[in-house]
Amino acid sequence: MASVEIAAEHERILREIESTDTNCIGPTLRSVYDGQEHGVFMGKLDGRIRNHDRDIEKMCNHHFQGFVDSITELLKVRGEAQKLKSQVTETNQRLQDDGKGLLTCMDELRLCRLQQRNIATSIDKFTHCLPVLEMYNKLQEQMTQKRYYPALRTLEQLEQTCLPRAGQYRFCSIMSDNIPRLRTLIRDTAMSQLKDFLESIRKHSDKIGETAMKQAQVQRSLDSAVSLQQRAAVGRRLRKEAGLGVGTDIDGQGSSPMSEQDSGVLDVEDEEDEDEVPGAQELVDFSPVYRCLHIYTVLGSREQFENYYRNQRRKQARLVLQPHSNMHETLEGYRRYFNQIVGFFVVEDHILHTTQGLVNRAYVEELWELALSKTIAALRTHSSYCTDPDLVLDLKNLIVLLADTLQGFGFPVSQLFDMMFEMREQYGEILLKKWNLSFRQVLDQDNFSPIPVATEEEYRQFTSQFPFQDPELDKVLTRGLLPFSEFVPQVYSQLKEFVYACLKYYEDLHLSSTEIDDVIRKSTNLLLTRTLSSCLQYAMKKKNVGLAELVQVIINTTQLEASCVYLEEFISNITNVPPDTSNATKLYGTSTFKDARHAAEEEIYTNLNAKIDQFLQLADYDWTAAQGGGAPSDYLSDLIAFLCSTFSVFTHLPVSISHTHTFSGKVAQTACMSACKHLSTSLLQLLLETDVRQVSMGALQQFNTDVKECERFARAGPVPGFQGDTLLLAFSDLRQLLDLFTQWDWSSYLADYGRPTCKYLRVNPHTALTLLEKMKDTSRKNNMFAQFRKNERDKQKLIDTVVKQLRNLITAHQT
């Protein structure tokens, strides 16, 4: 059983050796050597080899004849092959000899085709590169010629069109790398030119404004009543004449600007005005701002440029609106200030109308509001220093011209006119101060004497200055005097000059005739009620003004009062407003001159009373005298002589003056009555003053003698016109008091006190008591032994009784 298995195993190993690659036979043979039947296996292996050799021999024997036949045929073919080889060799040699020329031609053809291809390629490349080089050369020329906007356009075309077509070349790379630097250079150069432009318009704004204001002045003189629609056309014309035409607009895509040599002045509507001389475009070239705007638009930085331009112009506006510290000293300072403002806004108006969006209406209006506020504030400050009315008037005319010029460009100027209305009060105050000096100078130079006239020609000369008409011309010439002094015609002329000065200010302020008439009348009223009135008061209060001067002041004011009607007619004539217009302001001249006349009258009364007081200060009574003298006191005699000489002035006046109702009928009588009353009151106060502690009967008799002298003066009628003893009534209080004491009529006084028929109706019980107590003290002190005399004791008892009764009377009336 074991041998069968070994035999089967050996068989398997043999089959495996036959069918297995020799490289993998190692494990199979190892299994043989590992076993114990190595010899057996070798025997079987030899037997298997012998079997295969027999099979090979059988197969060779079977195919040997065919092999022999094949060898025989192969030997036959070898001969033919040798022949064929020699033929092929000969043919190849002939072919090789014949193909050498063809190969040479083919090589030449190949080289030619290669050259053609290279040439075509080069031409194509040059076709794309030449525009790049031409464009770059054009760019360099434009940069050299400083034509930066076309250069920027060329640069854009070079970058976006030419370079992408040219391909990747070194010079293209260099150009591409150089493009940002060129853009920066163009932008910086344009900005530098813009800065130069801003500096240029800053320097030339004065000249631009002067040109615009001159053109506005010419236009206003040609047609002062231009309509609102015409003003708009005038504004366009002013812009051209001021060098501010209309430039090319800029669209949102950055359209092409004008040529580099164009100044930015182009207005199709104004092309027909070729004969007109251009103005400010000769001073300022606006092309840099257009160029810079186009360049920044193309570069996509338009907003940055707009902000920069507006900020720079705002800064310039603040500089322009800053006035010089000494601007108020001369009109030229104001003119330069206004020219700069006008020039600034004329430029801004031009930029507004020649660009699209660089500045807008809101921006310009914002600048204008700033300018208005600062200009008005500066004018208010600097004009307040002005004291010359001519300078204020010239300033007003300059402001009107400023307003008309800017209004022609469409700027609202109502605030400027409002400011001029405010300035009229200052102008009025300056005029009042000037006329105050004029009036005072006239008053200081006046001699307060009637004007002498010898001929009718002289009379006409004075009446041409002052509306004085005397129907009795022959009497005036015979008399040789006009009633008033030179003060009257000079003051009347000054009033007319004041009206003219006021009228000059209100010209061109767009006021109606009624408004002008109203403000002139109000200003004239201020002149009359404040300035002229104070000057008259000043003239009357001077120390060297005497009675004659005060009398002449009254006459002068009377004549000026009568002239107020003619002054109103004069104002109505120059304002073309009838004086009877409803709501028309009336002149206060009549009341002013009446007040001045009344003040002069009061001054006469005051001076007389002051002079009387000076004489009374010389009174030296001996209040304890035992017996009075028979003659009046010296001071009183001098006082009466002074009053007589004083009131004689009234009686020696010219007829035409002395017959004046206001003066001779009232002033003289009132002055005389006032003097007598003051004298009577002062004498009574002198008698009752506290320093006088004792009054004797002798002193009272002397006092009575002086009062009688006063009554004699009053009775003599120092001033005509008093009826009866009217002037004596001024001394009635004093007379009744002295009669009561000198006649010692106390029984009648006490019995009839309070009755209308009382003899001593004007004697006040307080006054009587005061004087009686002074007499009682005198009796006690001067009569040391009066108690030993019966009659003296009785008199003293009587005085005590009267004193007691007077006190009871006073107490009863007080209750």
UniProtKB/TrEMBL annotation:
Residues 253-262 have a biased composition (Polar residues). The keyword Magnesium does not apply. Pfam families: EXOC6_Sec15_N (PF20651), Sec15_C (PF04091). Residues 267-277 have a biased composition (Acidic residues). The keyword Oxidoreductase does not apply. Transmembrane segments: none annotated. Component of the exocyst complex involved in the docking of exocytic vesicles with fusion sites on the plasma membrane. Belongs to the SEC15 family. Residues 415-774 form the Exocyst complex subunit EXOC6/Sec15 C-terminal domain. GO terms for cellular component: exocyst; plasma membrane. Residues 44-213 form the Exocyst complex component EXOC6/Sec15 N-terminal domain. Residues 245-278 are annotated as: Disordered. GO terms for biological process: Golgi to plasma membrane transport; intracellular protein transport; vesicle tethering involved in exocytosis. Keywords: Exocytosis, Transport. PANTHER family: EXOCYST COMPLEX COMPONENT 6B (PTHR12702:SF3), SEC15 (PTHR12702). This is Exocyst complex component. Gene3D superfamilies: Dsl1p vesicle tethering complex, Tip20p subunit, domain D, Exocyst complex subunit Sec15 C-terminal domain, N-terminal subdomain.
